[in-house]
Amino acid sequence: MIERDHPDLSIGQQCALLSIPRSSFYYTPQGETEQHLDLMRLIDVQFLETPFFGVRQMTWHLRNEDHAVNEKRIRRLMRLMGLMPIYQKPNTSKPAKGHKTYPYLLRGLRVDRPNQVWCVDITYLPMRRGFLYLVAIMDWDMSAPRSS
To answer: What are the transmembrane regions (predicted)?
Structure first.
């Protein structure tokens, strides 16, 4: 979007119009160092053998092979490679022992007007940095016309 040889606007003015720092225009990406590429190869080989290794286990493994690494570097490289460990996630849908099961209160109830019955659902969405909760609240009016 920025023209180097614009007759009226300097590069600084064009960057200001686009609301980007001038240094961003001159920046050239460096790529990964040879040391990081070697580490990525080692991570890839180990991850194929043990796909349940997360950042901590991978760091521990590489340190045992005399590589000077920390969790921060391994986390960045594994994220760059798109590696996510495989592990059993908690099943929160199963009730705990002794948990009271409530009866279904709508059995046999005829829903024929708005604001008679409402339903709510909530789900957890993991994101790259943290998580979100998605909540849906709906009116169960069955007499409303449906689109198909």
So the answer is: none
pLDDT 10s digits, 107-139: 888 888 888 999 999 998 888 888 899 999 999
| pTM exceeding the 0.70 threshold for the entire prediction | no
Distance, in Å, from the CA atom of 136 to the CA atom of 123, rounded to the nearest integer, reads 9
Distances (CA, A) of 136 to 34, 115, 124, 148: 49, 16, 12, 21
Where in the chain are the domains? 1-30, 32-87, 110-143
